[in-house]
Amino acid sequence: MSSQKQWTVLNSDNDFNGLVLGDAPVPKCGENDVLVKLNAASLNYRDLIIPKGMYPFPLDLPVVPGSDGAGEVVEVGSKVSLFKKGDRVTTLFNQQHQYGPMDPLAANSGLGGVIDGTLRQYGVFNENGLVQSPKNLNDLESASLTCAALTSWNALYGLKPLLPGQVVLVQGTGGVSMFALQFAKAAGATVIATTSSAEKAEKLKKLGADHIINYKTQTNWGEIARGLTPNNEGVDHIVEVGGAGTLKESLKCIKFEGIISVIGFLGGGDPASQPVVLEVLSKICTVRGVYVGSKALMKDMIRAIEVNNIHPVVDDKVFTLEQTKEAYNYMWAQKHFGKLTIKID
Predict the structure, then answer these.
(1) 16-30 confidence digits (pLDDT tens)
(2) How far, CA to CA in Å, does 215 sit from each of 221, 237, 268?
(3) Is the model's pLDDT at 3 over the cut of 70?
(4) Backbone Cα Rg of the chain
């Protein structure tokens, strides 16, 4: 156990060619640290845009990529009190974000960005940067929780908690949207989902989506979504992953005092296509940026996952650690449905 296989992002100006697999020493365990044999990881859009030079948050290259990981504790430091050898654990995205609002220290502690991440066989983490994996999930499922699931939970519960009977709109079929759909249905909410294909629409129906809109053929989906809400009042929570490409439509269907949680910018970031800030005033709504979430929120989320026996939507195709670059290309081509996972031997 002296050496291991790990991926490294060497630079952010050479597309996925800057992503390299090599041998590295197994990291040493400090007195407050936990050494984890990583059994699984999952990818996020963030992982793809880091080597492409498109990531707008702090980076410290070269870095081991990947924020999402799950595995088994194989060693603990002398002062560790939260975990023991043999525990099943899952990583926390921002290692310093323990509770409460985001602050600069927490924002600069993201795994796979400024701190070595999970696309390797072994990782050392401060004990505060891990949580116990849900009892009802396997490692591949648990590895999908770190970023997408916690971001979704924060969107629905981090500011104004979702209530039964409210309406939630999710966009597309990526990890964040799928978790938001599952959490919303577990809470007794009505879910409107947008998608681009009939095939994905069928999968969304099976997951419990109450209404599905094809945004390719129904480009005015904001107005259509509003028409699906009680008394045409609008949507209570929108999990906004498209950014500039979809925010205009989201503003058309948000309810007075509703919340639009901005997660990403999959729809592009052209400033010319972005709504003006004053539209938020005319809609009397809150638009908030969500940067994953705290450990306290993650523990709440895991309790909900266990109590409701929620299982993440994981793509049928599972890659090995050696196939990570293939996984990047597969996800970049948007061939995945839900979370894309990597099995680590």
Answers:
(1) 999 999 999 999 999
(2) 6, 18, 15
(3) yes
(4) 20
Q: pLDDT, tens digit, for every residue of 84-137?
A: 999 999 999 999 999 999 999 999 999 999 999 999 999 999 999 999 999 999
Q: Both 165 and 209 in a single domain?
A: yes
pTM score over 0.85: yes
Q: Are residues 73 and 13 part of one domain?
A: yes
The sheet with strand 235-240 has its strands ordered as 211-214, 190-195, 167-171, 235-240, 254-262, 286-289
Are 169 and 139 in a shared domain? no
- Residue range(s) defining the domain that contains residue 103: 3-144+312-343
49 found inside a domain: yes
User: What are the distances in angstroms from CA 39 to CA 55, 79, 120, 121, 141?
Assistant: 27, 25, 9, 7, 11
Q: What value, to the nearest 5°, has the Cα angle with vertex 279 and ends 277 and 281?
A: 90
Beta strands in the chain (DSSP E): 3-9, 19-25, 33-43, 68-76, 88-91, 122-126, 130-132, 167-171, 190-195, 211-214, 235-240, 254-262, 286-289, 314-320, 339-343
